[in-house]
Amino acid sequence: MTTALYDLPGPRARRRHRCYGLGSTAVLLALLVWIVSLLWRTHQFTAAKWTPFLYRGIQDLLLTGLGNTLRAFGLAAVLSLALGAVLAAGRLSVHRPLRRVCTLLVEFFRAMPVLVMIFFVYVALQMAPLTALVSGLTLYNGSVLAEVFRTGVNSVERGQGEAAYALGLRKTQVMTYVLVPQAVRAMLPAIISQLVVALKDTSLGFLITYEEFLHAGKLIASNLDYDLPFIPVVLVISPVYIGMCMLLSWLAHWVAGRQRRSPKAAADEVAAPQPGTLLPGDHRARG
């Protein structure tokens, strides 16, 4: 079938697309082979460089760092969602001073680099590394999520809110029972995608000596006598970071797919019609 916007490719186009796919696959495989051969020539796969990862102390250090990373991410995620909701509510407020203050805060923290905020809290305010890391991630990601929440609420059809106001609902009730539940469909994928950014930014904690996953890898690499100390550590740490980010990305796609499905409402039984009460002044006989 053909449509006005897209025509199905013919035999020549399918062969051309197949050639493009095979060529891209060959280039990626060649790049992978080149990287592996380069690592092999520099003796990165020798047993001496991988045996230390079997030691219990190094495994405990990596697991502790991973736990600290997940801890910082969990705190930053919860606080970012809370801060984003508060700032979004302020930006949607009918009170102009509150709306302007929240807009200024959102634009300021969105423009400020995350690392600068982390160092400011850590150095100027003399906070603990975990507090500084979580504070910087919360301020940045919370301001971004505030825009996500505001855009999601504004994406709901305007008539939905007007109908709710016509029924006599207050603004808090309109937001809670009408607009926000409908906006969740548009917001969830973007929220989870922003949480992926927060997870990756937890690696900035090693710059302020927070003992997270990357910091643990740096300690291992700097205390082992290798010719190229960071390569085996990178090959161990990178798949873990990639796996966690891919898990959150998969969750975002899964949520988006679930939200695209049409909700099914169970049919309620309707009572049989009964003779109604006559209006005042109506002298007609009941049927």
Please give a structural write-up.
By secondary structure, the protein is mainly α. It has ten helices and no strands. The chain has helices at residues 11-41, 47-50, 56-91, 96-111, 114-124, 129-154, 158-166, 171-201, 213-222, 230-260. It is flat and about 85 Å long. Residues 264-268 have low confidence and may be disordered.
Give a quick account of the main beta sheet: strands, pairing sense, barrel closure.
Answer: none
**Fraction of residues in H or I helices:** over 70%
**Rg over CA atoms:** 28 Å
Shape: flat
End-to-end span in angstroms? 58 Å
Uncertain spans, ≥5 residues at pLDDT below 50? 264-268
What is the count of helical runs? 10
Oligomeric status: single chain
If you average the pLDDT, what whole number results?
82
Broad structural category: mainly alpha
Helix-strand pattern, N to C?
Answer: HHHHHHHHHH
Strand content: under 5%
Q: How many β-strand stretches?
A: 0
What keyword list fits this structure?
10 helices, 287 residues, flat, mainly alpha
Short overview:
The chain is mainly alpha-helical. It contains ten helices and no strands.
